Amino acid sequence: MRTPVIAGNWKMYKTVDQALDFLNTLRGRSEVNGVEQVLCASFVSLPTLIQATSGTEISIGAQNLHWEEEGAFTGEVSPTMLNDIDVSYVIIGHSERRTYFAETDEAVNKKTKSALGHDLIPIVCIGETLEEKEADRTQETVRDQVAQALDGLTSEEATRVILAYEPVWAIGTGKSATADDADDVIRFIRKAVSDQLDPQVAREMRILYGGSVKPGNIDSFLERQDIDGALVGGASLDPDSFAQLVNAAAKSGDQE
Ligand SMILES: O=C[C@H](O)COP(=O)(O)O
């Protein structure tokens, strides 16, 4: 059985004090069993958040990393540095990084390998743009992104990857994919993983949906067998709404 994951992507929101306020309000409100809850915050807040969540069921993730361990790469953060402060997860290849920071599939692959080599759990984002969707190229796009992200990984490594299917047109727009459409694409992704690696990896790999997920629509995604949780932007910024998402996922895990 795959443990559901609710990962909040705080993007470039929240100062250190605001991050701590969030945790203080969240305390005791989110279910601790049967679900992995992850908060992916800015690099600046990570050490404080890790200290504040020590001994709790909340895990902390970064939103990016460089694949090299060290070097002359101004402004970058290495996997070794994330290890040093006990970060557990890292988002890789988010569409905002692909669009605004020219992150390529090749870089996504290098970062994924580097994260795995440093015991970080990569949350690798894939998804089609509106233009690709309208040209009926959703499957082709996600298949290529998955193929390149997982290229060269062993089955054992690939099983540790979490994929997040985030249609770019659904991110921050309030217009989520329908559960039917998300489910269709995620089943297609599972089949692609099975063809590329092996059926067991496809059965064990967690695949999340992301794009305008909120407490009001999370159940429709979680009730689909192939959707293992969500990567959430806007609705993860509020502790009450994040707790509701986590609790919904814990409940969905109970029912399986
Ligand atoms: O990483 C999260 C996604 O970009 C989704 O953001 P959103 O929930 O605000 O649409």
Q: How are the SSEs ordered, and which strands pair?
A:
Blueprint: E1 5-9, H1 16-26, E2 36-40, H2 46-52, E3 58-62, H3 79-84, E4 89-92, H4 95-100, H5 105-117, E5 121-126, H6 130-134, H7 138-149, H8 155-160, E6 162-165, H9 179-196, H10 199-204, E7 206-210, H11 218-222, E8 229-232, H12 239-254
Parallel strand pairs: 1-2, 1-8, 2-3, 3-4, 4-5, 5-6, 6-7, 7-8
Bound molecules: glyceraldehyde-3-phosphate.
Number of strands: 8
Structural class: alpha/beta
The CATH architecture category equals Alpha-Beta Barrel
Mean pLDDT rating: 96
H/E series: EHEHEHEHHEHHHEHHEHEH
% residues in beta strands: 5-15%
Work out the helix count. 12
The major pleated sheet works out as: 8 strands, parallel, barrel
Plain-language structure description:
This protein is of the alpha/beta class and about 260 residues long. About 45% of the residues lie in helices and about 15% in strands. The chain is built from twelve helices and eight strands. The chain has an eight-stranded parallel β-barrel, surrounded by five helices. α11 links the parallel β7 and β8. α1 packs across α12 and α7 packs across α9. The mean pLDDT is about 95. The structure holds glyceraldehyde-3-phosphate (G3H). The site of glyceraldehyde-3-phosphate (G3H) has 14 residues, from β8.
